[in-house]
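FAQ: What does the model actually see?

It sees only this:
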Amino acid sequence: MKMDTNEQNQQDKRELRHKRRQRNQIIAYTVVGIMILLLAVGIAFAVSKITSMSRNQEEQQNKVDEILSDEETIQAPTESQETVVELTDEQKLDTIINEAIIQNMPLEDKVAGLFITTPESITGVSAAVQAGDGTKDALSQYPVGGIVYAAKNIQSADQLKQMIDNTKLYTSYPLFIAIDGEGSDTDAVAAAGLGTKVDTPQSIGAAGDTNNAYLAGTTVGTYLAELGFNLDFAPSADLSVVDGNAAGSSSYGSEADNVASFVGYMQAGLQEQKVTACIGQFPGIGSSTQSTKDGMASTDRSAEDFRANEFVVFQTCIDNGMTKMIRISNMASSSLTGDNTPCTFSSAVVTDILRNELNFRGVIVSGAMNEAAISNYYGADEAAVLALRAGCDMIYAPENFETAYNGVLEAVQNGTISEERINDSLRRIYRIKYADKLEQ
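And it is asked to produce this:
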């Protein structure tokens, strides 16, 4: 009997152990099943997420290509879908500019991008001959739209090229690297022996062969491009109206049609070398003997004479499709403005005539703000705001950059100038800077 009881106890233990194993196996299988299920769900989610990210990256990568594609069209939302509107090159470029630049640009950077300054005005040095940490810090704080160099910045070809190359590396946005000269003795680069000198526009115009203007433009454009320049404040579109006029040897002559041809050929030579030409100085300074560099300058030329002569030159240059930038004169012309306001501050000249009457759609650059005609009578901030309100897109060479910059920034912040007005100017500026995007 005792033996039977022991056997029964052992059998009970075996059954208990068996049940325990079964329970443990069930738990283990359940856990494994849950883990497999969770793993499957995780894998499915990860695959979905990766697929979505890949699709988004592909869409972003293809966005510009789709914009630039010749096949891209916008279809009107009609049932037949028969109406198709193709994007113009300007619309394609504006889409790239809006998405790549303007939408992501802080207001402070937008304002800085409207200025073309000397290197000294942003670094504080007396004569910039190299671009190091000072230039890097300055462009980080004030990413200006362009830098213009002069004779005091030039020591040698290697020095100038290295300074320009470094400067381009130190900014987040593409820069205009500018010079003011047409290749003659007054040209800082040519005068320093870094480029082949060419005849003055006055001499080229007197010889009567427009091909000489083209060759001059090609020569100047070639050496400027090799040094790193991409903008030249030339050629002059001024007519030589009176003896001793302010245009001097920079004018090709006195006949509007002839001068327009010479300007066009010079432009073509420059721009074939990827150097943008900025013609000037609208509405024309050849009827004044006073220099805006020395103080207030004015002309008594009638509006009728301007329209029959000087405007013909600018209109021809605009109509030929090559003119991308025009600089305004600081001279006063009461027949056009109604008072003694410098043309660069006159909406009647900048917007009503140049922008609307002559239908210029490119970049309008103010006169040099450091000239005595401006700096003797206006503060740097006041001058910059007045030029923008008149319709200028870029402020050239302010007397005091920081003062001018802060004045414009405050004007936008308080609503005196709208941010959309600034965006319009930036679009025009970047149509030049991003023009090669449509050539890719």
